[in-house]
């Protein structure tokens, strides 16, 4: 398999993971909060305060996505921003779908 974990810039991986998690939190908390609640069937009821799993879970998932992306960049010969955008265009929807699959089994509501 690929032996590139030692070659990764782990500072960049950590920063990217934090940015990815914060952007995801902002996206689901503000940008699509209402449609997200409707799809989950939570638009009418008061939700309990989220526990630590709602922070740790997405953070771990973000770390997996960032490390996977970083590992794939070298063997796929990604050398420009355009190449990277093309690869991520394939990876991120899969990650998003699995992340939403935990909460709902209605993929058509999300357009997946």
If you had to describe this structure to a student in words, what would you say it looks like?
Keywords: Membrane, Transmembrane, Transmembrane helix. The chain crosses the membrane at residues 12-33, 53-73. With 112 residues, this protein is mostly helical. The chain has one domain (5-110). It is built from five helices and no strands. The chain has helices at residues 10-31, 33-40, 53-73, 81-101, 107-110. α1 packs across α3 (53-73) and α3 runs antiparallel to α4. The longest helix is centred in the first third of the chain and has 22 residues, at 10-31.
Tag the structure with descriptive keywords:
mainly alpha; membrane
Task: Write the SSE topology.
Layout: H1 10-31, H2 33-40, H3 53-73, H4 81-101, H5 107-110
Helix pairs in contact: 1-3, 3-4
Overall pLDDT score: 76
Q: Note the run of SSEs as H and E.
A: HHHHH
Beta-strand portion reads under 5%
Overall radius of gyration: 16 Å
Compact summary:
The protein has 112 residues and is mostly helical. The protein has one domain. The protein contains five helices and no strands.
